[in-house]
Amino acid sequence: AYLADGRFEGLKADLENARDETLNDVELWQSGAAVPPAKDPLDAGFIQWPEELLLDLNENGDNSLVARIENCAARIRETADGVVILGIGGSYMGMKAMFDALGHPYHNELSRSERNGVPRIYYEGWNVDSDQQKALLNLCEQRAVCATDNTVADARTAVIVISKSGGTMETAVSFRNFRALIERQFGDDAKRLIVPVTGDSGKLRDLSNEAGFEDVFSIPDGIGGRFSVLTPVGLLPAAVAGLNVRQLLQGAVAMTDHFRHADYGSNAVLDYTAVGHAFEVDQGLTTRILSTWGSKLEAVGLWYDQLLSESLGKHEKGATPLTVVNTRDLHSRGQQHQEGRRDKLITNLLPGAPNSDPLTLPEREDDHDQLNKFAGYPLPKILQAAIDGTNQAYADDNRPTADILLPTVNEHTIGQVFQMLMLATVVEGRLVGTNPYGQPGVEAYKKNMNANLSQG
Ligand code: PA5
């Protein structure tokens, strides 16, 4: 409704141009050329185009990348009962987003058969926290020691180490520790239990070549970490976790197709970009709140926080993303969003129908809490009342909201959301003249950290 105002007429043409440029980048990318507007080839890049992977699967069957990923994942599921995913930033946040959205919320508490043979999932290498890392190392060690025969699956831990550059300190430090543990416990089998995912060159690649691990997966050169969720970076751990990676890719393909063909005004990518951009330039709404309704989508929001900040937070420009989980955060940040500074655009990410029969509110004879008047209400109805009530409260105070509504949360819709938000980030970069690839600001701390360590 806001965009229907004549002031934004030019935006349509600008966004359609940005779409053409984005699609043109794909062609350049596929032909092997660097992608503009990068001046430095290191800043050139693109999103993994999901069609390519499905095409490869159709043409090459068992030799395709998707099939190799699925086979390796099946092997890890059979031989290990825990998998530690080592990575930071774009090298783990996409996987966490998928698994939190699609996995059982108490996955690691379930028995192996309740988990359908999917290993327990742990994340490390995303910080330098001695206590936390030690706790996980001890846990993995004790599991193996407690087992009577350490060849059984329920004793074993596998490690997927993900680093595109292969030189990220946090991940490299934790890999040393976990590699030492796995080698100590399982000897030569470590070659099958450790799977690196890395670029075609770099320290982790060299180390992998030397170590002779059974499987090593590549991250295509031009695809930046935060755009790599649909490469082996996200797909391998997702497949280990029992997610349907083909459905995920098909969802992403459907969104690409929609982006390519749908008109402005009914194009999820262009419209989402337009709303964020228009409110930012017109009303100074520089804080973009992604309001997720249900904890399962929080990690999708955190993945998006990284995507937007690292891609567009440059040249003293770029909106500030912030993820909240509602209704939880209505009791904390909600105050500020309702009455604080008018610098926020709130976008609701709505999970749609629950994946199982909804809980209902039971009736009680005593009714001391006076909830009997709502007895029998399904929880989604109570949630919807909160969503509508919150939107209404913002509207009453002239605070804008937008909605992204998923029909339900599954691999297909999560694939769509990933692709939609990656495309929107690239399109917005084109629109405002910021190269979304590269993250020179992040390199600054890495350089200083390494220099500090070198001083001894
Ligand atoms: O988006 C990015 O490129 C970064 O967030 C990287 O993913 C992160 O710095 C980790 O880098 P690497 O995979 O090289 O260890």
Description:
The protein is an alpha/beta fold and 456 residues long. The chain has helices at 9-30, 50-60, 65-79, 93-102, 130-146, 169-186, 190-193, 203-211, 232-240, 245-261, 268-283, 298-312, 334-339, 379-396, 411-432, 440-454, and strands at residues 82-86, 120-124, 157-163, 194-198, 217-218, 287-293, 320-326, 344-350, 401-405. The strands form two sheets. It has a five-stranded parallel beta sheet with strand order 2-1-3-4-5, with helices on both faces. α4 (93-102) runs antiparallel to α12 (298-312) and α10 (245-261) crosses α15 (411-432). The protein is globular, with a radius of gyration of 23 Å. The model has no long low-confidence stretch (mean pLDDT 92). 5-phosphoarabinonic acid binds at residues 88-91, 163-165, 168, 171, 224-226, 310, 439, 442. 5-phosphoarabinonic acid (PA5) binds next to loops.
Give the DSSP E fraction (strand runs of 2 or more residues): 5-15%
- State the major sheet: 5 strands, parallel
Tally of helical runs: 16
Give the C-alpha Rg.
Answer: 23 Å
Characteristic key phrases:
456 residues; alpha/beta; five-stranded parallel sheet; four-stranded parallel sheet; 49% helix; binds 5-phosphoarabinonic acid; cytoplasm; EC 5.3.1.9; isomerase; glucose-6-phosphate isomerase activity; gluconeogenesis
Summarize the structure.
One of its GO terms (molecular function) is monosaccharide binding. Pathway: Carbohydrate degradation; glycolysis; D-glyceraldehyde 3-phosphate and glycerone phosphate from D-glucose: step 2/4. With 456 residues, this protein is α/β, with parallel strands linked by helices.
